[in-house]
Structures are given as structure tokens and as C-alpha cells.
Specification:
It is a single chain. This protein is of the alpha+beta class. It folds into 5 domains: about 140 residues, no CATH class; about 80 residues, no CATH class; about 70 residues, no CATH class; about 110 residues, no CATH class; about 80 residues, no CATH class. The protein has 23 helices and 10 strands. Strands 6-7-8-9-10 form a 5-stranded mixed beta sheet. Strands 1-3-2 form a 3-stranded mixed beta sheet. Strands 4-5 form a two-stranded antiparallel sheet. A hairpin with a 4-residue loop joins strand 2 and strand 3. The longest helix has 21 residues.
Length: about 525
């Protein structure tokens, strides 16, 4: 494994010299999986249930989970004790790809200097001490906090110290994207991203006239925009709220001396969620990067001799494209290979983008040799969304033969059948983007919030909240706030008689552990 590190460093990967590797059994893997493979993570009753489920599934479907790696300092990885040596070499290259990604991608920059395993151990001990004193109430606080830990303010917490001042948008652009589209028009995130892409394309083609050209289209679509902008107060800022953090800082209930201990528990849940947030937003590019490097490095390693067929079979099982469903290993790997080819041929420049002829595009080759350098830049700055949005093109879809599948019922056969629904790049990109982790956007209405009532607003993006989760989630927030909680949301409804689709705004109110739902007036 030390030899693997030397080869990886020579290839350009950058990661700490120190790392820890453990050989473990299948049972160990099953026991650690609910704790995200971190042995020191705090205990929680749901983890025990998942362990029991894991043992039950393993008895029915025995398998060998090959490895797992966690983002810590030093990085820690686990290997199945049934793996042969040649396989562990190949797997370690995959692990080194992950470690390189963890330690260089900017989504993870707030984790670069943390010993999360050590912090988790301290948190676990603190929670154990609190359980001795406060009993089951500790688990209530954990459960209520975890019910909303998916909406922590991850992006607002990323440092902007390297953000160039000259890239700050104009006041009108800032108002359009942050206030007009989100606050007044309530467009979905996908529609907003499309507008951002249109703006970027115009700015790229004409730095001087791009913004004015952009707003010409805006005024045609929304004639009232300029009048609304004139009335806007430039001092008013969009507040990126983190609900857990807001409760920590402002909850009247948690401020009471007898409840202060709960803040420690809520903060542990929040910090843990923040630590794992970048992994949920970079699953495909992270796995693609690791798969790219295990293939790149292991095939050049003389220790593969005699195991070529075994490697080919294992690699194919991991990185094969799924006809139904999405394999992040396969999609991430092929996107990176596609980018490398584009960069090597100089196809990432604007001159190539202007070419429309099929043969002209296929024959275009500037022989730049910039493929690897471009990949390292991608590894440093991209997430899954930016990867999909930037590089899923018709050329990519055609090259790898990927498509969007549909599902329909065949009444003659009485079966469900899958069919190719679309081979268009925009449809495939939309499917990939829609598959990404995207928690609901919940903000606090400060004008309607006070010590007795917390008023939340769900920024509707075309999808209903999970209705069955609302009562229990609001019950937990009510407990942590110490007063009633209201949630304003929009729901898509279908008329049973006419079949018409409509949107209706509702307000849920949780007071004294009782839920009430009313139409917004």
C-alpha cells in the first residue's frame, strides 16, 4: 500500500502521507455501516435497528462489501478480510482517489483541518454523560434535531475568502436572481439555474453587452420587472437561514437554565450533518474520480500480472452503465473520461462550441494535452450539479449511448415494461439533476415569528413536501422552540372529478402537540 501511495503521488494525486487501514469482517462492516463507518459516532437507537436489518439481509443475501473510506485526519479505510491481496491493491488505489478528492475539493474545505473521528468520540462521551443525568430526554432531542438536520445551511457555511471581489454581481442581477425569481416568482431551482446558464452564456459571448441583452429578454418575459426593481431596498439582504442554528440561537425554550444542556446535543447533530453534507452533494463525481484512478493506476501496476481477468470482471461490475437506474461510479467515470478527451483535443474552448457540422466537430483536434490538468481542476472545484450542468451534452449522450427510460403498464401481458423515453441531452441532464440530493428550502419569516410562535415558509419548487413527515417534524420543532410552530407550504392537487392539476397554499399549525391544516387566506 505504501507503494500504491508512491505511484499515486507520481501521477499527480495529492493527499496526506499518513493514513490508517483496517482489515475487518463482514459482521464488522454491517455493524459500522449505520454509523457511516465511524466507530466513535454517538449511539442512537435507529442505528441498532439498521444493524439488525443488515444482519437479516446478509443471511438471505450474503455478499462481501469490499471497502469503505471515511474523510478524517488521518484518512481511515476498511477492507474485507475475504479480499485477495491483488484486489486490495486495486481497492486501495480507489481509496486514494477518494482521499485525494476529500482533501482537495472545495466543498470539503471546512473539513480539511478537522479530526472528525476524535471530535465524534468527544461528542459520544458527552451524550453518554447526558444520558446518565437526563435519560430518554437526550434521545428525544437527538430525534427532533435529526428530523431537520437535512436543511442545515451547508453552502452558507462555505468560506468565501478566495472569492474575487470583481465577480460580485451588479445590484440588478443580484435582485433578479435572489429576490425577484426566488421571492416573488417562486421559480424552481432548476428554472433559476437555467436562467443563470443563459446569463453566463451571454456574458461569455459579450462581456460589455451581455447583461443588457440578458435584461432585454427579462423585460419581455416580465414587463413589471423594472417597476418592482425601482421599489426594492438595496439594503435588504436575502437571509440564508439554517433552521437548526436559528433554534440554537433564538429558542426561548433552550435558553432556560434547565434546558441549556440540550444545546450541546442539537449542536452535535448539526455539526455532524454539516460534516457529511459535502459527500451527499458530490457522490457521482467522487466515485467517478476514485474509479478513474483505480483503473488508471492499477492497470499500470506490475502486481496486476496474473489477475487481469479477475480485475476486468470486478471493474466491469462496479463501473458498468445501468440501463435502468443510475450508477454513480459509471456516470462519474465516463463524464471524467469525456472531459479528458475534450480537453486533450481543445474542445472546451468557445471556438469549438460555435462549430455545428458533425464531421467538423468530430475531426476537431488541437492536440493540447491538457486532459489531466483539466481533470485536476474539475476535481478541485466541481460538485455533482456543476458536473452534470456543465458537461452532459448531446456529444456525451451519443458517445456513451445513454438515455432516459420510461415505465408503462402492458395490459395485454399484465406486466410493467421499460422503454427508451428520450435520447436528448437536455432530458438526460434533467433526469440526472432531479436525482441529486436536494432537501426542501425552508426559511424563517421573522415578521411572524416571536417567542410563542415560530413561522416557517417552504419555498415551493414544484414538489410537495412528504405529507406524512410533516406532523412528526413539526412536533419536534415545537418541542425545541417551546411554542407553537407554523409551516406555510404549497401543495399540488388533482381534482378527482375533472383531473385538473392546481396549486393551493396551506398553513400547518402545531400547537400543544396537535396538528391543524388550513388554506392560506
Amino acid at each position: 500500500m505504501e507503494g500504491c501511495k508512491e505511484r499515486a503521488w507520481d501521477a499527480g494525486l495529492r493527499f496526506d502521507k499518513e493514513s490508517l487501514e483496517y482489515i475487518v469482517t463482514n459482521k464488522d462492516m454491517i455493524n459500522l455501516s449505520p454509523k457511516v463507518m465511524i466507530p466513535t459516532l454517538y449511539d442512537y437507537w435507529v442505528q441498532d435497528i439498521e444493524v439488525l436489518q443488515g444482519h437479516g439481509q446478509y443471511e438471505v443475501y450474503p455478499n462481501n462489501p469490499y471497502e469503505t473510506v471515511i474523510n478524517s485526519r488521518p484518512a481511515i479505510s476498511f477492507y474485507n478480510d475475504n479480499n485477495p491481496d491483488w484486489m486490495n491493491i486495486m481497492i486501495f488505489y480507489h481509496v486514494l482517489g477518494h482521499i485525494d478528492f476529500f482533501q482537495n475539493n472545495k466543498l470539503f474545505q471546512n473539513t480539511w483541518n478537522d479530526d472528525f473521528v476524535g471530535q465524534a468520540l468527544a461528542d459520544k462521551r458527552l451524550i453518554a454523560q447526558l444520558r446518565i443525568k437526563h435519560g430518554r430526554w437526550v434521545d428525544y432531542v437527538i430525534e427532533f434535531s435529526r428530523s431537520i438536520d437535512n436543511i442545515v445551511g451547508f453552502y452558507s457555511g462555505i468560506s468565501k475568502k478566495e472569492y474575487p471581489v470583481q465577480l460580485n454581481p451588479s445590484a440588478m442581477i443580484d435582485f433578479y436572481f435572489y429576490h425577484f425569481l426566488q421571492g416573488q416568482k417562486k421559480l424552481s431551482q432548476l428554472d433559476i439555474y437555467k436562467e443563470i446558464e443563459r446569463y453566463n452564456q451571454l456574458i461569455s459571448s459579450s462581456a460589455d453587452q451581455g447583461e443588457s441583452m440578458f435584461f432585454e429578454e427579462v423585460k419581455k418575459k416580465w414587463p413589471e420587472f423594472l417597476e418592482v426593481y425601482k421599489e426594492f431596498d438595496p439594503q435588504k439582504k436575502v437571509q440564508e437561514e439554517d433552521l437548526l442554528e436559528y433554534i440554537l440561537e433564538h429558542s426561548p425554550f433552550l435558553k432556560k437554565s434547565s434546558h441549556v444542556w440540550m444545546k450541546s446535543v442539537v449542536n452535535i447533530v448539526r455539526q455532524t450533518a454539516l460534516y457529511f453534507a459535502p459527500q451527499m452533494r458530490s457522490k457521482t463525481i467522487n466515485e467517478g474520480w476514485a474509479s478513474y484512478w483505480h483503473d488508471e493506476l492499477f492497470r499500470k501496476d506490475d502486481r496486476i500480472a496474473g489477475h487481469e481477468s479477475g480485475y476486468a470482471k470486478l471493474n466491469a461490475s462496479v463501473t458498468s452503465l445501468s440501463r435502468i437506474g443510475l450508477n454513480p461510479y459509471a456516470i462519474g467515470l465516463r463524464l471524467l473520461q469525456h472531459i479528458e478527451e475534450l480537453a486533450n483535443k481543445g474542445k472546451l474552448n468557445y471556438q469549438f462550441q460555435k462549430k455545428r457540422g458533425i464531421s467538423e466537430r468530430e475531426d476537431y483536434d488541437m492536440k493540447t494535452g491538457l486532459g489531466k490538468a483539466t481533470l485536476f481542476k474539475i476535481r478541485e472545484e466541481f460538485s455533482d450539479f456543476t458536473l452534470f450542468n456543465s458537461f452532459v451534452s448531446q456529444d456525451f449522450v451519443d458517445e456513451y449511448g445513454v438515455f432516459v427510460t420510461g415505465k408503462r403498464f402492458n395490459p395485454e401481458e399484465g406486466t410493467i415494461e421499460y422503454y427508451i423515453k428520450s435520447r436528448k441531452a437536455e432530458d438526460y441532464k434533467e433526469m440526472l439533476v432531479n436525482s441529486l440530493y436536494h432537501p426542501p428550502y425552508i426559511i424563517i419569516d421573522h415578521e411572524k415569528t416571536n417567542d410563542e410562535n415560530l413561522y416557517l415558509v417552504h419555498h415551493f419548487e414544484g414538489k410537495n413536501l412528504y405529507m406524512e413527515y410533516i406532523p412528526d417534524t413539526l412536533l419536534g420543532i415545537e418541542y425545541l422552540w417551546g411554542g407553537s410552530v407554523q409551516l406555510e407550504t404549497t401543495e399540488i392537487r388533482k381534482d378527482k372529478k375533472t383531473g385538473e392539476i392546481s396549486q393551493q397554499e396551506f398553513v400547518y399549525t402545531m400547537k400543544d402537540r396537535k396538528i391543524e391544516k388550513m388554506k392560506k387566506t
